[in-house]
Amino acid sequence: MPADNLNLIQRLNAELAKIPLVDSHSHVPGPDPVSRTLDDILGYHYYTELAHSTGMSKDCLAKDHDPAARCREILSHLPKLKNTAQYRWFTHICRDFLGFQGGHPNETHAEQLWHEARTVFSRPDWEQTVWKKTNLACVFLTNDFDDALEGFDTTRYIPCLRTDDLVFHLHDPAVRNRLEKATAIAPTNAAKTRQAIDKLFVHFKAKGARACAISLPPSFTPAPVSDAAIDRALQNPTPGSTELAQGIFWILAEHCRDHHLPFDLMIGVNRKVYAGGVFQGQDLFDRRTSLVQYAALFNAFPSVTFPVSVLDGAQNQELASHAWIFPNVIAHGHWWYANVPSIIERDLRDRLNAVPAVKLIGYYSDAYKLEFILPKCSMFRGLLSRILANDFVAPGTLTEEEAVGVAGQLLEGNSRRIFRLPATGPGPA
Amino acid sequence: MPADNLNLIQRLNAELAKIPLVDSHSHVPGPDPVSRTLDDILGYHYYTELAHSTGMSKDCLAKDHDPAARCREILSHLPKLKNTAQYRWFTHICRDFLGFQGGHPNETHAEQLWHEARTVFSRPDWEQTVWKKTNLACVFLTNDFDDALEGFDTTRYIPCLRTDDLVFHLHDPAVRNRLEKATAIAPTNAAKTRQAIDKLFVHFKAKGARACAISLPPSFTPAPVSDAAIDRALQNPTPGSTELAQGIFWILAEHCRDHHLPFDLMIGVNRKVYAGGVFQGQDLFDRRTSLVQYAALFNAFPSVTFPVSVLDGAQNQELASHAWIFPNVIAHGHWWYANVPSIIERDLRDRLNAVPAVKLIGYYSDAYKLEFILPKCSMFRGLLSRILANDFVAPGTLTEEEAVGVAGQLLEGNSRRIFRLPATGPGPA
Amino acid sequence: MPADNLNLIQRLNAELAKIPLVDSHSHVPGPDPVSRTLDDILGYHYYTELAHSTGMSKDCLAKDHDPAARCREILSHLPKLKNTAQYRWFTHICRDFLGFQGGHPNETHAEQLWHEARTVFSRPDWEQTVWKKTNLACVFLTNDFDDALEGFDTTRYIPCLRTDDLVFHLHDPAVRNRLEKATAIAPTNAAKTRQAIDKLFVHFKAKGARACAISLPPSFTPAPVSDAAIDRALQNPTPGSTELAQGIFWILAEHCRDHHLPFDLMIGVNRKVYAGGVFQGQDLFDRRTSLVQYAALFNAFPSVTFPVSVLDGAQNQELASHAWIFPNVIAHGHWWYANVPSIIERDLRDRLNAVPAVKLIGYYSDAYKLEFILPKCSMFRGLLSRILANDFVAPGTLTEEEAVGVAGQLLEGNSRRIFRLPATGPGPA
Predict the structure, then answer these.
(1) Burial track B385-423 (b if 16+ CB lie within 10 A, e otherwise)
(2) How many interchain CB pairs under 8 A, A with B?
(3) N or C: which end of chain A has fewer CB within 10 A?
(4) Does position A361 have pLDDT exceeding 90, yes or no?
(5) How far off is chain C from B15, nearest CA to CA, in Å?
(6) Nearest CA of chain A to the CA of C294: how many Å?
(7) Do domains A37-121 and A126-418 have the same CATH topology?
(8) For residue A290, which phi and psi values (nearest 5 degrees)?
(9) pLDDT tier at C307 (50, 70, 90 boundaries)?
(10) Residue A278: which of A82, A60, A45, A21 has the closest Cα?
């Protein structure tokens, strides 16, 4: 590309930074959204798992380990990761939030970073500062089905009903007890389970929930299950019961339809593949899976919008093609192992060249603390700016203004429409 | 890349535009090849399905709906697609053929475009004009097995025997009746079916057919079937009979061998996945498929050339590797959901870096009307020019002249050799 | 990218050429490492299979065919391959080793190249010359389990225990006899086979072996097998026995653990897919495979390092993600059909952006003669320089010096650590 495009990319990037971000999926805890110590930053599973993968023992990850010592230990392994995008999110945080000036943070900076983080994170306006620096409109949470959804502003921290436990762990008495406790209904058969799930939806909707969400293994294929079969499965619930998982999943889809909630599908994760891995660092995927497994679902619920994420970038064309054909399928962000700049760039280019922009939600942070939204979204905006410049503005397909408009759809507008959010706000103001 | 490459790309692109195009697969109707109204353009399934996918009701697609009103309706949805390559083909047509000067065509241009199309398309030399502007050498059709192949110049509009119905729908009495009507032979057993199919090949060959073609689902695996098994399957034909499909397919391959016809395989489509979709907008794919499923076929018919298309770009390396190893496998164009500029660029780069140029047919339009060949092929030539410039000429691997020679193979020469076309002509002259 | 990056890329490439190369996988014969005639170069399966794929009869490949005539025949087909990377390795050899000055070598250069090769390859210091020009530190061999490992310097030519025959052909009496001859133990049951394999490991370790290696079909899934089941399988060994293959494979992994050898897994090859192909030109792959099939293995042997290669670039994200999570999984080079510059560039970018550099072995040559290491590794270094420049140095993520450091890990340092080689040497000196 000509040198000129660099200026164009920079101009676009500057415009994109002005668009308030709707972060449509995160694990930020509503009542406790910002970090308190450096441990909240370096404890993010990306760092613990990568440090472990390059040789760090899991000992320092024990709950009772001294947090400052843990940070020093993790920092001592960071130089081995310095080529990774995950590491760049951390240096971005160090520079933008913690005033770090050096090149690459390592264990010699442990004390300095620990104390600086203490100081910065304890400022009374820290949460507001992060919202402003991030230009955040609102952020979606991941809430357990029995979450009280209290202690936070649900117009900023949008509740989202996470349903993995219901679909894949209802054989577990602990989960059934939680469901009974939350709804006062024991899920002993299909009818009662349906009533209990309805109560959950009523509760979540009343609290401003804007989505139901679930992560799904590569082998899962949604299908309707008769109440009789669900009854049988619930009488003697066993781990891994396909009928139970399919049955509950289908009931959830019915409630998304009846309660007008989009159903976020995060497709492709195999849990606990690396049994000896760190917390959240045990899961992988299997490319022997296809979105065609979801055809019955997409056909059966035309009024339910399904924002779909895939874990394997090599499945991106399936996602783009399904979003191209099915009115109710949305290509949703770049998930986890596909949340890598070179993979995002490839997948996003393919989506932008093939799928109407209204069918794309550009990005979500998947963050566990608010501080991670800025570095992750900055990475995405940089990639989006480059694609818009090179593939659309430079060849004369879109004007700069139109390109910024497309970015606005991907970063804010489509999420507002699809998740039925207000047209503006509440944002950092 | 350095700024200089831009000039190089432009020079190459200008040279490539001089190469007469052999369009080796289309759905252009021989007796009715050009558009009559704007409805023939906007009725292309890419627009109806994308408009539907972004919210357009299917009502306006009813046969008896007013065509001008349908065009206005589709145009009203186009702004939502303006980032897509499919939309760029339309704006290319508006500008190059309909004198459209505005930025993005929308419903406010409906009347203007409708009338301009009427005027332009009704010119007596319109068909010739399109041939000239497109620099078209000849275009392959998609002919039903019982097509009379009359009413058109078969040196320009090359007949091609499409065999999906025979392989996958011979259980259907209507299809068996059509076969009997076309050949005067009732396909009641293997021997008679073989005779009937032979008659089809004789007819098509006599009319100048240059290929037999079929699209295949991801699950299909060719294998020889005994006549006894085919006999059984034909006695009580059922939908989805694997033996019947495999048996008829193998008979077709035998006839390709005996009649010296290449057998175009378009691999990977699942039909009617989105049951509520528009016409031609219901099909998708499943990445759980492999070209290795075709090993028995490629081994059994060394004298038959198989131009192979795949629907999923993530299968492109399989295609490149099979064309690299099997003398009778040709990598053929970029099909349907993989016919997206960013996907073509990736797949074409991989093919050009790994597979001898003589084993590559660059592109086919898949067009339903002649007007679409120009915008689609222009897109391809632009991508090919860029790859040749950056990957081959700039690093000194090929001279500009050699690069144009490679392009000539991909756009014209290889198709002439593989499909046994004359060395030149008939072309636009 | 700006024009400046070109200078940066060139600077990096010059620095990378100074890094001594540890070539971690080849088929170079230890006692006969360099070419003797042009036939050793053009007989490389890449040229015979591509020439055959573009129309060359296999007649000239008969053992008793005149080698000079064979070279002329292959050369006559090379112009058809001139767009391929494989061909560029040959022109690189012609220019760098044989003083060839013309554009594209073809049959008119047959005599000249034949005689020049004779002269050059028979120089007494030819082997040393190639080591120097290649800046080679050491090269790994592929040794049959019954190889005496004699007649070469095992500090330069590193023995590697190749185990395909043991795992997939122990049903073959010839293989069992070879094992008995090599170890004086007849593999009649699990216990004896274990003893025999232990003897092989002792022998290989004593001779300086640094790895155990195997290529595996897409369908293979490692799993422990009881000795009783192995006993049964060995009593009546049949081709394709899953229990026998899994059982022997698991025993090999146990010995890798006990003898501290990394276990190179080259995953995904289907043998003899094209039955009529040339020697080594019959194998392909099947993308319906997943690294998740290896989870049990990776979990069971945490102390064994597994350098993993995949045959299909579309499986690269699986490899990157497994190397990201499993401490004992290393992403290893770019194998065979994925050893294509455009595929390497994509796969390497994804690895460098997602996986700690310490978990990556950049490249191995897979060469059959020493002369091929230079052109293949030069190709890789050029791609690595470009990625480091554009993705890391230009955006300010790494300094030039740090980028060269990362390259040093990929080209030399990681292999030295993982394969327990000395910190330096022996190299070309």
Answers:
(1) bbbbbbbbbbeebbeeebbbbbbbbbbbbbbbebbebee
(2) 113
(3) C
(4) yes
(5) 18
(6) 10
(7) no
(8) -145, 145
(9) very high
(10) A45
User: Cα B66 from chain centroid?
Assistant: 29
How do the domains of chain B map onto residue ranges? 37-121, 129-418
Euclidean distance between CA atoms B414 and B427, whole angstroms: 16
- CB pair distance less than 8 Å for B342 and A350: yes
pLDDT at A3: 52
pLDDT surpassing 70 at residue B1 = no
CATH 3.40.50.720 fits C139-418, yes or no: no
**pLDDT value at C67 more than 50:** yes
User: pLDDT tens digits for B52-108?
Assistant: 999 999 999 999 999 999 999 999 999 999 999 999 999 999 999 999 998 899 999
CB distance from C6 to chain B under 8 Å? yes
**What is the arithmetic mean of pLDDT over C283-302?**
98
Query: Using alpha carbons only, what angle is made at residue B279 by residues B277 and B280, rounded to the nearest 5 degrees?
Result: 90
B85 and A290 within 8 Å at the Cβ level: the answer is: no
> Which pLDDT value is given to residue C102?
85
Mean pLDDT of A233-256: 96
Q: For B363-397, write each residue's pLDDT tens digit.
A: 999 999 999 999 999 999 999 999 999 999 999 99
Distance of alpha carbon B197 from alpha carbon B202, whole angstroms: 9
Averaged pLDDT score across all residues of chain B: 97
| Mean pLDDT of all residues in C356-369 | 98
- Min Cα distance A404 → chain B (Å) is 12
May I ask the CATH architecture of the domain A37-121?
Orthogonal Bundle (1.10)
Q: Which class is B129-418 in CATH?
A: alpha beta
Question: Looking at chain A, which residue has its C-alpha nearest residue B88?
Answer: A397
ipTM over 0.85: yes
- Between CA C57 and CA B302 the distance in angstroms is 12
Residue with tokens 């990377």: C85
Q: What is the CATH topology of the domain spanning A126-418?
A: TIM Barrel (3.20.20)
Element (H or E) spanning C133, and its range? Answer: helix C126-134
Provide the shortest C-alpha distance from residue B421 to chain C (in Å).
19
- Cβ <8 Å between B292 and C281: no
Instruction: Please tell me if residue A285 touches chain C, with a CB cutoff of 8 Å.
Output: yes
